[in-house]
Amino acid sequence: MMTTYYLRLALIPLLLLTAVLLVIRSQPYDDRELREILLPTDCPAPCFMGIRPGVTTMEEAVKLLEASGWVEAIDKQNFPYEVKWKSNLPDQNRINSERQNRVSFSNGIVSRIDLVINFKVGDIRLGFGRPDIEDVAHISMGAFYYRGVYIDKGIFVEAINFCPQSEIEIWNVNLSVTYVQMHSKNFGVDNKIPWGQAIWECKNLNRLAGR
Questions:
Q1: Could you tell me if 37 and 94 are in contact, meaning their C-beta atoms sit under 8 angstroms apart?
Q2: Distance between CA 77 and CA 93 in Å, rounded?
Q3: What is the Cα–Cα distance from 120 to 90, expressed in whole angstroms?
């Protein structure tokens, strides 16, 4: 009897989240900006600014960054292993201008591109649909990690934030995006725990911490 009661309680947040997502999905969503930045049509995925992991050389990557008009300055301190750069565009362009972005190299070829964006989990889900791999992990006291992998697009998105007060909060968290050749299996942190368990643990920690 008690087991049934607790199962019903556990289903309430899930049903609420499902209802909210259904309402959101029923609204028209303009994903042109999202796709223009993350999935350019003139370059096979994975690709950003003409730079392609597994294809573009490090010299070509630097030249493309310099010629893009998007880059404020290129930090070559760790060259030939990586270069870092900041966007010189206003934040409404959706590329974060406060944080450094990174292009990493292996054997003289681009191995991955790490980009800090001003899109949220909800933007990605609405624009690209449900990822091929998606989970949330409770990683430390009061913090959670989100990951969504789009294999065909050659990208995965990640976010780290305080534990959510509710499931709905997850959709409003800013992301970083990584471009990588998917056969490398470089999807980010491994050993995730199930979504529901992560949120449940975060909620309990929130209660203990008085959040």
A1: yes
A2: 27
A3: 17
- Domain tally for the chain? 1
Q: Is residue 41 very low, low, confident or very high in pLDDT (cuts 50, 70, 90)?
A: confident
At residue 34, what is the residue type?
Answer: L
SS3 call for 153: coil
> pLDDT tens across 164-173, in order?
666 677 788 8
Cα 58 to the center of its chain, rounded Å: 24
| Domain, as residue range, for 158 | 2-209
Helix, strand or coil, per DSSP, at residue 78: coil
Buried/exposed code over 13-31 (b: 16+ C-beta within 10 A; e: otherwise): beeebeeebeeeeeeeeee
Nearest CA among 66, 76, 131 for reference residue 102? 76
Q: Which two tokens stand for residue 17?
A: 């989240």
